[in-house]
Amino acid sequence: MTTTTRLIGAPINRIEGAEKVRGAAVYAAEHPADQPVYAYPLQSEIAAGRVTGIDTVAAMSEPGVVAVLTHENAPRLASTRDAELAILQSPEIGFRGQFVGAVLAESPEVARRAARLVRISCVAREHDVELHPARTDLVIPEQVNGGFETDTVEGDVDGALASAEVVVDATYTTPQEYNNPLEPHATIAMWTDGDLTLHDSTQGVHWVRETIAALFGLDQQQVHVVCPHVGGGFGSKGLPHAHVVLAAMAARLVEPRPVKLVLTRQQMFSVVGYRTGTVQRVRLGSDSAGHLTAISHDVVEQTSRIKEFAEQTAVPTRIMYAAPNRRTTHRLVELDAPVPSWMRAPGECPGMFALEVAMDEMAIACGLDPVEFHIRNEPETDPATGRPFSSRNLVACLREGARRFGWTDRDPTPRSGRSGPWLVGTGVAASTYPVFAMPGSRATIQARPDGRYRVLIGAADIGTGAWTALTQIAADALDVEMSDVQLSIGDTDLPYASGAGGSTGITCWGSAIVDAARQLRAQLPASAPIPDEGVEVTGSIPDNPYAGQMSMHSFGAQFAEVRVHVDTGEVRVPRMLGIFAAGRIINAKTARSQLLGGMTMGLSMALHEQSHVDPRFGHVVNHDLAEYHIATNADVGEIEVDWIDEDDPYVNPMGAKGIGELGIVGTAAAIANAAHHATGIRVRDLPITLDRFC
Ligand code: MOS
């Protein structure tokens, strides 16, 4: 194939880029709708209790108000098992901000204004919204997210810690953090003859269809979900949240008119998930030469009382380092709080913060360079399963990163670097992310008599570059030019695709596309003329014979320079370097953007992101971008991203691993470790704010 080397890996511009910058790309709420009704949610103002009365008289008398949806007139759902989604089925309230209704009006302004006129009476019961790790009623989840075991133990951790020459025993905390995609969550819902059409901002149209069909007791074919473009999701649009149900219920009330619902930034802080807060105790034992003898990682984190969410925080610890004695545990605190959900690298991101700061603490305690300490504890096979890694190039990333960052000149002494009023330090941490395989995706390729190829798959582009990378994969597999391939995604009328989650999009959808292309080429060689009626084939993800045999993960090494002002404690990050190993890179430009974006979000986590919950009322007080701080351009210095060539023939037909989430894993630890090197002060609780140094 002549095009392979040219297309795969090439830094191709986004094929939908011009459409996006011209404003021609249509996002969910922008989709034209005929005579839409606008919905504005009513939300609970207590954290726990029940609604005793809803007075809608004043709201209904406002000109332009069409209806008020409440638990009294809401459609009954076929399934109420998922208490996050089964809204308005009873007067019960499980958390502050939970939907208790919606005002429907002829304009969004009228709906919003009238919502303030609805009088909701409630009786409250006692609530608890604070993550106390010492609470005595901790819940043991059956399994943590992703189907992983809750606890693992191998060897005698306590014995090994008791006899270890060097021990690190520290507790790390990460706060509740919030996804803030540029495009807020938005849904247009419309019923036609009992069928439901949704224009929804989502990471997976088919996942929305499955969930909504089950809730409303519909056949899947009765639910049509459309979403060609998404302005970011980061996990918060991975699964449908309650606003999709609210929009569909509201549309039932005004059928056949469509209902538009766009969440405000503030509403997003209670109804679309968040990264659970964690309290993590890490204990490491080592011999004096820096060989780990024990690794223990115990996690306490929060879930909502109405629905269990068990973040897999200690799961990455199971595969990272060699040590004969290892243990991980997860426990949950049930709170009268909104339901946590996925946020970029759920599990890996907070878990690796704790582990990689502990690794830095242990390296220092052993008198070793942290890069050398990591390398010394590199496992030969996956410590959790004993299986070989399909490829693992953490050491290569560390070495290449150290070389390029100028690590070898580093004086390890804390507080030894100084530039004017700034204390200067550098830190390192490892990144990792699993190669998940989401089942079920299929892709159809139609060869048309005009020599062009249509590729159809219900995939999503959440801003990652999937439109472009999938077109590259198809063109490469068909051995044609990209301009000969016309891709369609983001619609349940297209073949089933799993959602853009777990960094699986390109690898899973791409595998189905490659399968379809190979079938097509078996029938119709590239040199053969295409028959008048065209040719159509559908491919699926081939079984991976190595799936149960090998451990599949991507890795990386992140280096950070931190400056802390000696008088004010102000923390700056002028320089970061990430070197990654993630199999074959499909598009060098969009891949670099993903990794750069991940590291930027990691910087944001390290220095800024934190919610403040008012324990009296149960809401996040800083629930907007004025007060929930995220990194802006002024916070980001120079970030360099690169990868090493990694040939992995085992993961999938492209040899590619996911890159969406890898970049955020380890960043906060690298920055915390650099801040320690700069100041001699160890910050174990994120975010690293200036008051920690004064
Ligand atoms: Mo990701 S947090 O699986 O969108």
UniProtKB/TrEMBL annotation:
Every Aldehyde oxidase/xanthine dehydrogenase a/b hammerhead domain range = 22-126
* InterPro entries referenced in this protein's UniProt entry, alphabetically: Ald_Oxase/Xan_DH_a/b, Ald_Oxase/Xan_DH_a/b_sf, Ald_Oxase/xanthine_DH-like, AldOxase/xan_DH_MoCoBD1, AldOxase/xan_DH_MoCoBD2, AldOxase/xan_DH_Mopterin-bd_sf
**One Gene Ontology MF term:** oxidoreductase activity
Record Gene3D superfamilies: Aldehyde oxidase/xanthine dehydrogenase, a/b hammerhead, Aldehyde oxidase/xanthine dehydrogenase, molybdopterin binding domain
User: In which domain of life is the source organism classified?
Assistant: Bacteria
Keyword list (alphabetical) reads: Molybdenum, Oxidoreductase
The name of this protein is Xanthine dehydrogenase
The organism is Saccharopolyspora thermophila
